[in-house]
TrEMBL record:
The chain holds residues 1 to 420 of 562 of the full protein. Keywords: Pyridoxal phosphate, Transferase. Transmembrane segments: none annotated. The keyword Transferase applies. Belongs to the class-V pyridoxal-phosphate-dependent aminotransferase family. Csd subfamily. It comes from Thalassomonas actiniarum. This is cysteine desulfurase. Its EC number is 2.8.1.7. It comes from the Bacteria. Residues 26-394 form the Aminotransferase class V domain. Coiled coil: none annotated. The lineage of its organism: Bacteria, Pseudomonadati, Pseudomonadota, Gammaproteobacteria, Alteromonadales. Its cofactor is pyridoxal 5'-phosphate. One of its GO terms (biological process) is cysteine metabolic process.
Length: 420
């Protein structure tokens, strides 16, 4: 039986060995971005030291070496999410750029006035604003799927909201605030039944679940390298080949063309048609290392450890006086969102920061969700498998002291309301 050792795992992350505000860093903001292991940092530097050149262009050794590493990374990602072809893997800057690409290319070329785009109340702004922009340009209309009491998209409303007028259904695999797995199988089946395309924002799911895009049967799946131990500035757009073939380019420039003359331009084959200009080669190469790293560790033992983190954290948090969870049931991934009655979120986050504890407070780029919940914001603790039970104990101790008034933490400033 494989065995996951969080302490050994943790040793591979240099930043986690540091102090912040003279205290050992406790990093509980992994939903925003994860820390990077030494092997990823090395891959990034090694690329610049040993292989740096532009890809797909020159016939010299370094360019060939860089191109090989770049394309091997694409193949590593293809295998990681079980896409049918590496032509379906498009490099982007991140999830946000991927959704903008789909909305800009597919959306602008296919949508017309009166067509409907279905989103949900729990979407990140990255999966709302690009659709609002395309709706404004095309006259398409946005409709919103409500949430059930357990925080996932309400399955009972699928047939009512996703109709013959629906052309796109775009939703998160897991919300960055709620942390629960959405019923994708049912959502995708309903979208297919009405002929709509499905766009799945996998930003929060990819580091925690094993994702198989063919089994999901979605049309698009997006994620960011930096949330899965990889560098910032790299993301993946998976798209079904037939759809990508039909779609017009998103940006123009070098690399994405076959021939250019002033009489007209013909475009490169996939995936290059969507990769204009010099890409983030070092980032992509380092990301391949992050994918290998995650594959090595992401077994059942890794998942069992995450489940133990969830159970332990929920149990401890429930005992804090005045806590109000956004969703009362335990999350599926270690993301815990809540408010503390009588305390201002920002004051709590600042008090924790002074103890070297990094958490997130605010609207979490999900303002429509906050409005739905009648909250101005909330606190979020998001864990990775390098977080230990001792760290959880430490955070709970500080939160408890704040609530008891034994630590500064903005007592009794606002009354928090709202929860699913
Ligand atoms: N969707 C979700 C659910 C997210 O959590 C995030 C990042 N917080 C994004 C989209 C956007 O990702 P990025 O900023 O890497 O493009």
């Amino acid at each position: 039986m494989s065995c996951f050792d969080p302490l050994k795992f943790r040793q591979q992350f240099p930043l986690l060995q540091k102090h912040v505000n003279e205290k050992p860093l406790i990093y509980f903001d992994n939903g925003a971005t994860t820390q990077k292991p030494q092997c990823v940092l090395d891959a990034y530097q090694d690329y610049y030291k040993a292989s740096n050149a532009n890809v797909h262009r020159a016939s010299h050794v370094l360019s060939a070496r860089a191109t090989r590493a770049f394309e091997e990374a694409r193949e590593a990602v293809r295998t990681f999410i079980n896409a049918a072809s590496s032509k379906e893997i498009i490099w982007t800057k991140g999830t946000t750029e991927g959704i903008n690409l789909i909305a800009g290319s597919w959306g602008e070329s296919q949508l017309k006035a009166g067509d409907e785009i279905v989103l949900s109340y729990s979407e990140h702004h990255a999966n709302i604003v690009p659709w609002q922009l395309v709706a404004e340009k095309t006259g398409a209309v946005i409709k919103i799927l409500p949430l059930s009491n357990n925080g996932t998209l309400d399955e009972s409303k699928l047939a009512e909201v996703i109709t013959a007028r629906t052309k796109v259904v775009a939703c998160a695999h897991i919300s960055n605030v709620i942390g629960r797995i959405n019923p994708l199988e049912k959502i995708i089946a309903r979208a297919k039944a009405v002929g709509a395309i499905t766009v799945i924002d996998g930003a929060q799911a990819i580091a925690h679940l094993s994702v198989d895009v063919q089994a999901l049967d979605c049309d698009f799946y997006l994620f960011s390298a930096h949330k899965m131990f990889g560098p910032t500035g790299v993301g993946v757009l998976y798209g079904r080949l037939a759809l990508l073939e039909q779609m017009p380019p998103y940006q123009g420039g070098g690399e994405m063309i076959q021939t250019v003359s002033f009489a007209g331009t013909s475009f490169n084959e996939l995936p290059f048609k969507f990769e204009a200009g010099t890409p983030n080669i070092a980032g992509v190469v380092a990301f391949a290392q992050a994918v290998r790293f995650l594959r090595t560790h992401q077994g059942q033992a890794f998942r069992d450890y995450e489940q133990k983190q969830i159970t332990y954290m929920m149990h401890k948090l429930q005992n804090i006086h005045g806590i109000r969870f956004i969703v009362s049931e335990a999350p599926d991934i270690p993301v815990f969102s809540f408010t503390l009655r009588g305390h201002h979120n920002h004051d709590i986050a600042t008090a924790l920061d002074s103890r070297g504890i990094a958490i997130r407070s605010g609207h979490h780029c999900a303002m429509p969700l906050m409005e739905y919940l009648k909250l101005s914001g909330c606190l979020r603790l998001s864990l990775a498998p390098y977080n230990t039970f001792a760290e959880i104990d430490e955070v709970i101790e500080v939160l408890t002291a704040i609530v008891r008034g034994e630590e500064p933490g903005g007592e009794h400033k606002v009354a928090s309301v709202g929860a699913l």
